[in-house]
Amino acid sequence: MEYSKKTRVGFIGLGIMGRNMAGHVLAAGHPLAVYNRSRDKAAELLAKGARWCDTPGDVAAQSDVVITMVGFPRDVEEVWLGPDGVLSRARDALLIDMTTSSPELARRIAGVAATRHCEALDAPVSGGEIGARDAKLSIMVGGSEQAFAQALPILKLMGTKVVRQGEAGAGQHTKMCNQIVIASTIMGVCEGIAYGQAAGLHLPTVLQSIGAGAAGGFQLNVLGAKIIDGDFAPGFFIEHFVKDLGIALEEAKAMELELPGLALSRKLYARLIEQGHGRLGTQALYKSYGARA
Amino acid sequence: MEYSKKTRVGFIGLGIMGRNMAGHVLAAGHPLAVYNRSRDKAAELLAKGARWCDTPGDVAAQSDVVITMVGFPRDVEEVWLGPDGVLSRARDALLIDMTTSSPELARRIAGVAATRHCEALDAPVSGGEIGARDAKLSIMVGGSEQAFAQALPILKLMGTKVVRQGEAGAGQHTKMCNQIVIASTIMGVCEGIAYGQAAGLHLPTVLQSIGAGAAGGFQLNVLGAKIIDGDFAPGFFIEHFVKDLGIALEEAKAMELELPGLALSRKLYARLIEQGHGRLGTQALYKSYGARA
User: Which end of chain A is more exposed for a tag (fewer CB within 10 A), N or C?
Assistant: First the structure.
């Protein structure tokens, strides 16, 4: 595949993240074919000139580059490996899964892709809705150097930090590192704030002191400030985060690696889902702490 | 007390932090009286014009402002409330404990100080040796507004961020918030890196991707980079950190607040001390994780 503005791109999965990302590809002038489980989410892209396809396979049949951004590993499996999936029709194409999914599945997909004369990349992102909207995602890529070089101009339409992390699966593994760090960090942020609340401190003043020091970072300074404001609206859904933590724990187990902080964080989050909080933002972990004011 | 360059300052506790901090006070032109358990650590300050005192009480007897920066709460108790302690001789003085210590002890000291016509502040710091050396500490202060206003010119000699957090004990409580956030954050950093190591990723490249996103912060970007370099030298000793976490857990228990992330982190650190790693830096928590390369 030789990259040009005429390179035909297919985009599958038009949720909050996907439709923002696909919008940048369309805006750059690429012919864009799209598919989504529910068609209504494609409306804005179709109005701007994207073409609708009835199946992932149809998208693949008319694209040089296919990008997927769906929900869970089971969705990835269906969209890629299912009867009407991408790999049922793709031929000499560059295939990129940007869903946060299992490294094992990423390697499996890359194997099948090779039998179809295709190259596959796993390229999960970090940066959330704002990063997707502003094309400022961090994109962590696994796959061959050659496929990475081909994909770079398109990935650069969506992200500012696009880094190849290694062979197939390495993008997903890197995303797992990211989620594992966050899993315990947000727990520390919630516990520190719960303590300050219980101790009767003025929390915005506390944040002023501790946000600038060794405790500081995105989780404390951005999500901690939201917690203090009582704002639990989702930047990133708890139910998606728990999916990621489950993948990470499973992979860690397969590597005989014990990660007790991750296990604890996942347990607390799973309890919040049971309590009906799965569609709140990850900072709602704060609700796990019975701070007495 | 009316502050001027002639205000006589006493400084007790001349470890790595204390002697750097006392140096700034001396450099600003204040007459400085000093005491330390072992005299040799005072040598540099004495050469620059500080006066040696044989007991904390002697320091207090000849100072308008007394500052202490010692190790453990039991040291604070001895230096302040012991037979030759600060409060045995202080009179109409401003007394500031900058040790990270128990909020309960801070309130007790403030009570005794009041009976000696003294004002006491608890003013623990964050920023470590570098912050102390460069006079860029974050200082979290508990005590009366009036005492805080009096102390401010002197505290500003040592720190850039000097914030009153409330009445006696509030400085210590704020420092506990700081340590509680860090306790789980560093655990997340170690687990994320251990996972990446086990998955065979190139860790500096991983840090490039994840350090700029939602996982980013001091613990990942500074201490995580040290872990990747195999550098476990102390910026902050594990044995001091475990002391802080113990105080935090005790206070949380008294408030009937459960903090499982903090408890887990402390357990992992306590094990490292048993294994003889107490004088390594906090990032050596990484040694808890049996990552297979």
Answer: C
Q: Distance between CA B79 and CA B64 in Å, rounded?
A: 17
**Residue A219 forms part of a structural domain:** yes
A107 and A223 part of one domain = no
d(CA B31, CA B50) in angstroms, rounded, equals 7
Domain containing residue B74: 9-167
Are B290 and A257 a contacting pair at CB < 8 A? yes
Confidence of residue B291 (pLDDT cuts 50, 70, 90): very low
Question: Both B238 and B271 in a single domain?
Answer: yes
Residues facing residue A32 across a β-bridge: A9
CB contact under 8 A, A177 and B196: yes
Best probe of the B interface among A107, A145, A172, A187, by most B CBs < 10 A, is A187
Nearest alpha-carbon partner for A157 in A5, A50, A2: A5
The answer to whether the predicted template modeling score (pTM) of the entire model surpasses 0.90 is yes
Burial of B96 (C-beta count, 10 Å sphere; 0-12/13-18/19+): buried
Kindly indicate the confidence band of residue A5, based on its pLDDT and cuts at 50, 70 and 90.
Answer: confident
Overall number of domains in chain A: 2
Span B219-271, pLDDT tens digits: 999 999 999 999 999 989 999 999 999 999 999 999 999 999 999 999 999 99
Active site residue B175: yes
In a domain, B2, yes or no: no
Give the span between the Cα atoms of A260 and A255, in whole angstroms.
14
Mean of the per-residue pLDDT values for chain B?
96
Same domain, B162 and B51: yes
ipTM field: 0.95
Is residue A72 in a domain?
A: yes
